[in-house]
Amino acid sequence: MFRAFATIIFSVLSCLSTTQLWAGETDVVNAKARCTQRVCTISATVRHDDTGWDHYANHWRVVTPEGEEIARRVLYHPHENEQPFTRSLSQVQIPPGVDRVVIEAHDSVHDYGGQRFTLQLPE
Fold first, then answer.
1. CATH superfamily of 2-120
2. What is the pTM for the complete model shown?
């Protein structure tokens, strides 16, 4: 009886951990910028197989090519039924001398990872 119970518990726990990892990392599949002088509105399209509150894309950020964070767009809830999805961030201050930025996304399990998107800024 104990052996059967242990097998069931092991199976359930294996499924739970597999479900969290199954969604994989978060990819930025597209991005656009509209800029006036050095202030931009950046729109990023993100893809992640959100599985609910335990594993979802929870923000994306704009970084310089050297990795310095410029701005961050928080995603306040899972997007299980909307993939890929696009969200914008306004009033992004671009530092002098920066002509392109990198958009990278974060999820609640894997941190940063997946496909990043390099965006050439309009002049």
1. C2 domain (2.60.40.150)
2. 0.78
